[in-house]
Amino acid sequence: MNKFLIFVMGLVIGIAVTLFTLYLFSTVNKNDNEDLGLKLFKEKGECIKTKNEIKIFQVIEANMALAKTGDYPDEIVLLLINYDGKSYYDDQKIIVPAKKCARQIGTYKYSTKMEIDKTVPAVVIE
C-alpha cells in the first residue's frame, strides 16, 4: 500500500476517534440537575418566608426533598436541597436556625400523582 494512503487513512481515523470521544464527554458531562427538573439560577435569590420549620413530605434524592412550610392557606411547597452530605427522610421536620433562611437558588418542576405539572422554588438553608 502507498505510504500516503496509509497516512490519510490514519488521519481520518484519528479525527473520527477524536470526534467520537468529544461526543461521549459531552453526553457524560450533561447537567444532571436539568434531567431531574431542577433549574438553578446563576445568582442566589431571595429568602422564602418560613415559620422556622419545614416539613419533608417526599424525598427525591438523598439530599433533595419536597417539603412544606407554613400552614394552610399560607403553605408553600418547595424543594429543599442540602450540600452538606446529610440525607432527608419522609415526615422529617427541619428547623431553620436563627439568622438563617431558606434562600431560593432555582426552581424545580415535577408532576403530581394526578399528573398536574407543578413548579416550586428550590431552596437551601443558609
Automatic annotation (TrEMBL):
<keyword id="KW-0472">Membrane</keyword>
<keyword id="KW-0812">Transmembrane</keyword>
<feature type="transmembrane region" description="Helical">
    <location>
        <begin position="6"/>
        <end position="25"/>
    </location>
</feature>
<keyword id="KW-1133">Transmembrane helix</keyword>
<protein>
    <submittedName>
        <fullName>Uncharacterized protein</fullName>
    </submittedName>
</protein>
